[in-house]
Specification:
By secondary structure, the protein is α/β, with parallel strands linked by helices. It folds into two domains: about 260 residues, Type I PLP-dependent aspartate aminotransferase-like (Major domain) (Aspartate Aminotransferase, domain 2); about 110 residues, Aspartate Aminotransferase, domain 1 (Alpha-Beta Complex), CATH 3.90.1150.10. It has a seven-stranded mixed beta sheet, with helices on both faces. A three-stranded antiparallel beta sheet has the order 10-12-11. The chain has a two-stranded antiparallel sheet with strand order 8-9. Helix 12 packs across helix 13. The two termini are about 15 Å apart. The relative contact order is 0.13. Bound molecules: pyridoxal-5'-phosphate. Pyridoxal-5'-phosphate binds next to helix 6.
Length: about 525
């Protein structure tokens, strides 16, 4: 489209540079009067009952031929970065390779082509997958039960907190406060607030962990529970987890663990042994089902014996005859009379379940344990390779878990975390997570996962060293990186605060920046 392009493409007549192809918006491409298919002539007479709905003006949709439509979306897809192109070192996100075996299994018609309202006798195999997966999740976590229906990590958090609230209310002890550590993932306080709790922070110690004494001091009859991420978002294991759980239980509260980082400890640590009452597992992180860009996730929640009776419906149960049934209603005795209710219309993400179980069965328990070991090894390799170049605030406190955390402390005046992240785009990498967690200034959180090879990590490390060296040498060009991407440095705040949702014409609110305004650098 030329307009916003200030990268290399701006220098050519076509707007493309080599095989890096520019692409206009579909509305700019599609004139009227072309079509990819032959429609019948419009019938002249509209049925009287529909006449008043007959369209008087053109629909104003872009019209493209089939090759134009195919090229449009293929060109757009090439402007995207994907785990199938290179490493995705986003800390806290566990962007690992999705083995193709997972895809083959998920596409089997018995899993891919079924409908949630099909008679139960016709989907026994799918129920069996859900049941086996549930079994693995309980075994791996040392927990009593699992709610399979939550659709993502944050949805799982809500499920766990609603179960905690139902259990407290059932014993006539509604409480108002949920304690959350400073380093918590943003979804934790959001979940607690959404469930109607007041959120209070627990401070961190100097070595990046929950301050146990501060937590003990705050516990009391108003505290419903805590939400603790373990391993935490500084990439560190909460060594005091059992003591935290014991203290919370002694004060009458319950323990929610954010298990999104389970990748670092799967097969090594069972959260049930640490006194956890509820924990979500991101199948789309630990168990390799693909994610990103709002794609399907799945956040099953494992529950302790105490919380199991409050699990949401629906769930799968085996009846006396050995058949698997979906329990859809509360009421009857076997139907969890204490369930807190229903969170989703249907049961869950069949495709994600099939991929996760495939991943588990193809790795076995020993393989899953090695996943955790290799993920931790890779993160420590990154940490130790870069700690001389970038400030690593918790490196002295011992090894990290699945992710390596750096701050901007060693960057010279005038250079920022953002410059390193944008420089990585020129180097051909997706940037790491930046400015999170908030407990570290200018945080750079790198999670390589176990699926990167040593050679791949070495390439990433070499790029990081080069970018840091350029900043230290005062290379001003780094401040306007990326230089080789189709778009240069965007005003991201402005784009987020004033999103341009219509490309031209009446819908554009006054004062909306044009593409060239936010695209110029
Ligand atoms: C990813 C993540 C979540 C949220 O999971 P979603 O599936 O994105 O809703 C929560 N907590 C932590 C620590 C995470 O990394």
């Amino acid at each position: 489209m030329g307009e916003g392009g200030t990268g290399p493409a701006a220098k050519t007549a076509s707007g493309d540079a080599g095989l890096a192809l520019e692409e206009a918006l579909i509305f700019e491409l599609g004139g009227t009067g072309k079509c990819g298919v032959d429609f019948d002539e419009e019938p002249g007479d509209v049925s009287p009952s529909l006449a008043k709905f007959a369209r008087k003006a053109p629909v104003d949709l872009p019209s493209l031929t089939e090759p134009e439509a195919v090229r449009h979306y293929t060109r757009l897809s090439r402007q995207n970065y994907a785990i199938d192109l290179g490493p995705f070192p986003l800390g806290s996100c566990t962007m690992k390779h999705n083995p193709r075996l997972n895809e083959a299994m998920a596409r089997l018609p018995g899993f891919a082509d079924i409908h949630p309202l099909q008679p139960m006798d016709t989907v026994q195999g799918a129920f069996e997958v859900i049941e086996q997966l549930a079994n693995w999740l309980c075994k791996l976590t040392g927990m009593e039960a699992v709610a399979m229906s939550p659709k993502a990590g944050a949805h799982g958090e809500l499920c766990g907190i609603l179960a905690i609230r139902a259990a407290l209310e059932a014993r006539g002890d509604a409480r108002e406060v949920i304690l959350v550590p400073e380093s918590a993932h943003g979804t934790n306080p959001a979940t607690a607030a959404f469930a109607g709790y007041r959120v209070e922070n627990i401070p961190a110690t100097k070595d990046g962990r929950v301050n146990l004494q501060a937590l003990r001091d705050r516990l009391g009859p108003d505290v419903a529970g805590v939400m603790i991420t373990n391993p935490n978002t500084c990439g560190l294991f909460e060594r005091d987890m059992k003591a935290i759980s014991d203290a919370v239980h002694a004060a009458g509260g319950l323990v929610y663990c954010d298990g999104a980082n389970f990748n670092a400890i799967v097969g090594k640590v069972r959260p049930g042994d640490l006194g956890v009452d509820a924990m979500h597992i991101n199948l789309h992180k630990t168990f390799s089902t693909p994610h990103g860009g709002g794609g399907p996730g799945s956040g099953p929640v494992v529950l302790s014996e105490l919380l199991a009776p409050f699990a949401p419906i629906p769930f799968v149960r085996r009846d006396e005859k050995g058949r698997l049934r979906m329990v859809e209603e509360r009421g009857a005795k076997e139907h969890l009379p204490q369930t807190f209710g229903r969170m989703t219309a249907f049961h869950g993400q069949m495709g994600m379940f099939t991929r996760a179980l495939t991943y588990m069965l193809s790795h076995g328990v020993d393989g899953l344990r090695q996943v955790a070991e290799d993920a931790v090894l890779n993160a420590n390799y990154v940490l130790r390779s870069l700690e001389g170049d970038l400030d690593a605030p918790f490196a002295d406190a011992g090894p990290c878990m699945h992710e390596a955390l750096f701050s901007d402390d060693n960057l010279p005046e005038g250079f920022s975390t953002l410059d390193i992240a944008k420089g990585l785009i020129d180097e051909g990498f997706h940037p790491m997570t930046v400015y999170f967690p908030l407990v570290v200034h200018g945080a750079m959180l790198v999670e390589p996962t176990e699926t990167e090879s040593k050679a791949g990590l070495d390439r990433f490390i070499a790029s990081m060293k080069s970018l840091t060296a350029r900043a230290k040498a005062g290379d001003e060009s780094l401040k306007s990186a990326p230089h080789y991407a189709p778009r240069r440095r965007l005003d991201e705040t402005r784009a987020a605060r004033k999103p341009v949702l219509t490309y031209k014409g009446e819908g554009v609110p006054p004062g909306t920046p044009s593409l060239s305004e936010i695209g110029g650098s």
